[in-house]
């Protein structure tokens, strides 16, 4: 309490020397371990002793920035708002929906062509390999198989490493962080979009963000009339729609896409957005439908039924009764355990791999090559151990066809069941596993081996610095896992193994990603069988509950590992014991409403703050009052345009509106902010004044200094703030005593200031066995 | 601005004399018209001239109350929080999930037995009628038909009128208002639950609310260890889960139920709730499954395939191409127009009927009887005009069976298609209409007549004071409408008429209720055919867009008509031109932190405010500071327990915690609040003091007086507040200058204070033709 005032420590630039960082017990091991791709952008932490507060700003690195979902209601905005013509509003609305249409079309098309490429490339590979195997050229077959795998992965790794490192991984954690208000560098650039192949959520979000930026300035694509969208709020909406479109395109699951965005990605939501996201995914569905129509005329090479995941395993006669519940419950419980173990192992591997990847591009490539060769060896080597079975089905054995049973080393008229699982695209394999009436197609041992292989390979592949998704590997592993359980049940259950595979996939998705409604709908949209619904729901509920008692979901783990300051949606219990003034630290920088240019420049140069409270002092007001909040970006605009006046007096807002249009203050795309270092001012100009009044946001959100931290966090998160001002509770003080930002709500920061609270906090990132964690979380906000 | 301070005018008691009400231009016609069932509870409006500010409190009428989703963080709460044992937390969590389990089971069972009853009663009726018709006893048949209809409706009307008027209608508007923070009287009582039959959303919400109240005090069901749930926040969660369970039980649509709650009912949502609502609906699905299993053994009378809406019209071969889009788009456009017209007519009829219903129970019964007889005449009379068709299908003609084609006046081996639509339960009729390959079963004229009849009867039935739902009539009307369009298309389309019926139902749902994702999922879960998805989405998008340009959805219209102060989720443009101090009115009542009993009693008796800011003044603090907010309910508890002290001094929180436990301050169920009139104090006691400190919420949310109204509304709504304090911007003023409540954000109130803003506001309740409305809304928050 008292006079402790807050430093707006938000921009998080390179912490180049390790001694600037305070190692807290919550970090995993050492500082280095948390760095990964974002190592140069890591959170610079407040030291409890309040030293080294001032950030080094103006470096040419892209910082992790917070986003501001609040409108800046300053005089200029209000004038603009009032004078907005009907046609401007119509254009805005028209554009908004056009963007959604565009995002839907593009995401649908990209999803389709992605799939087309995968089906054709992978299909060609498998056909070539099986032909060689048929001709007994085993070593050549291996060479072709391993060689093509290696070439593809090296290509992906090289473009990721040299064009856009942000394109690595699934991208979902970054999208999630963005929608929470954290702008990781370069995640939504055209480069990233170009490199990205596969994980559709990130692709969709990229399309949304790029559309919202009004093209890319760098590549000369910039339409002036898109300026209304140049704020974080509209961009966030477009990114949300894009992410929903991504899932819809990946799984042909339009409703699932909307729900995924709602359940897993978004931190804020409103019903108008539901409506637009739904429109976007509907467009995706129509686009896909139209493109598939074209393909059905047979112009798409190997793209057949396998294209675009849609397993459509029609089994009208699925019946189940209460007696079938125990095996299903068991499936859920084990799925939850395996899922949380998957998360745990994934984190460990990511951790080790990131240390390797950090050492440079050569290491990245070497790692990718190693992973590729191990994968090839496993996939090619293990089927030799599997027994051959006589063919009974139509599509067996496969000669020159993809998607069917594989002959491998067996005699003609026989098939190798393990090879049939490995030498197919993921989509085809999953369809095989989901199929009804195929209980006897696979040996118990083959399914076991296949499960272990996909579990392990899924974990080690993701750490490679290439664009890999998580969804399909998890579904594949889950499906094999389900079959394993089905086989172990033997005659104790009457349920089909194909049904077990579907439920296994659900339980594994629930165990790793912890989504409920969206996974449920996606599974339904994938299998096109609504009768499964109650069982899928049950399995998801159980596996999520079990897994939640061990660790958080995989995306949150990766988020933490990457050091992105994600604001949780629940309140830690100790936050109720603190007031807002307990967590602010460092000196508060304020401006007068008419301020000298020199002091503005000085403060901008010596701090990294993104916003400054402005005080109206005598002669403009007596006593001093809080006039509002001004943003760094706006101050830079004023300095660049040299909006100066010789004396300390009011200039009036008419003057300002003549000199500036709203576009001057529009927020640019991520990573394109101005720097104070680029502005040159003469000594004479430094002695002049700026009347800040017309540019100040006169409606900043405030809390009284005695407000509990828990409630301030609720406000901060629900309204989507970037800055929250603290006002004094009594009258004889300065009108503003501090400023809270995202950083001040981070548990690491709070526990750094109040180490005695640590005991009341439970460890989140550790692999825990305490089932109580979930219970403790529940009663909080 | 300046010193205008705010009156916390929240409790909205009977405005007994009409002159107290200020007729505003936004009201529909006269004051009387807005009254309906809630006429005695209508909003008392602030007169612009600030007269008659003080409400008459203490009457024995149940007021419409606001809800408070914020935690009261006072000393007692904090002590309780810190000392909460692990077992208490575990019990809380355990109870929470048990409640959901319980709600799911009960809602599933009620849904099932509701349906069972309907199937059997309606089935018996139709069988009796068709047997009489077969015996050529036409007048007897009519007498039986009309008589049973009349008896059933009279019974429903009588119990509604005499036991619980709140059970009338669909209940969805009331649930929606509750989740927005408006507690209409008696909506969630045991009486209401007992009377309610049919509309499952309200039933589910009732179960949730009653469970959360820890039983009903009135009926002696009260478990003390449920006290943790005695706050609005937990009750809201349970009501949400209950409403989701209701939809799930009504339509066997668990995912649709969750989405309906999310999209249409809730004003606030968090992901933890998604998770619990999902669990609840999963339980519903399992319960239903188990009960249907029992019925399949044939113990349920006429409850056969018709029971529990699940149309399951399996048509695997639905194909459609881009060429089929124009008729579908046309269907959507006309559906939107018809849907908004339905809303408009419904409102007019409700309006007229409510005037009749107001006149007393006799009128209610007369009205119900009239409606019932008109309905019977239509349904029995119109089929005489329909031609007979020769039987070609298995289930034709029907003798002693429900759910099949009806013989009516035709020869044996013939059927009357219109009678087949009328003389079946709604479920059976809808299944008939949705069926594939039945293009030639119905004559064009019969479908047309059926459409017009169900459109008109749907509108007039809802106004009767009995528990009627909206969903099924709307689906039925929509399905006939779809068939009409399909028939009019003739050979211009290759789509099946059953598909047209499904799309028609979707478009009509979109046109009246304006839901998107949830209707989409419900339709999918009803028809069990995912291939329909893109078409359903398209139709919904179009019909909603078209209808939105005319009027709001039916629930919002009914909400407005009932005078419930619903807080919209968007900001009206004029709110950006106002600051919070522009809308507060009337004198502010505050307490000192140690206050005289007499003044507390006086203020409680003379105002209806629900919370009072407390100021720490000398000698406890110098200068005066805002200490927090105290609730009326807490003050009443203090007065009742006579927590008095002889002098004006601090008592300390230890003293308080000895005398009070958290349960003393737990919020009771709706309509069970204490009254100051029930507390008797001696003249001596009136001279004593109370130290309020331990009972004051020290973390009330505040805004500075210059905050724009739009931003304050955002805060108010997103955080779920009941009171929002206004603090001064400068230091030389009282530490709190006003208080904002829900009422202050109501457009009627604001425009009453600032009539000049009216021109910038567009009329919401009128039947509008301006498509621009939607466009104007969009750019706002």
UniProtKB/TrEMBL annotation, chains A, B:
Membrane topology listed for this record: Multi-pass membrane protein
GO molecular function, one term: voltage-gated chloride channel activity
UniProt keyword Cell wall biogenesis/degradation, yes or no: no
Domain CBS positions: 696-756
The entry's keywords: CBS domain, Chloride, Chloride channel, Ion channel, Ion transport, Membrane, Repeat, Transmembrane, Transmembrane helix, Transport, Voltage-gated channel
A GO term from the CC aspect: plant-type vacuole membrane
UniProt-annotated location(s): Membrane
Transmembrane feature ranges: 92-118, 138-163, 238-261, 329-353, 365-385, 455-478, 530-547
Taxonomic superkingdom: Eukaryota
Family the UniProt entry places it in: Belongs to the chloride channel (TC 2.A.49) family.
Protein name: Chloride channel protein
Organism: Zingiber officinale
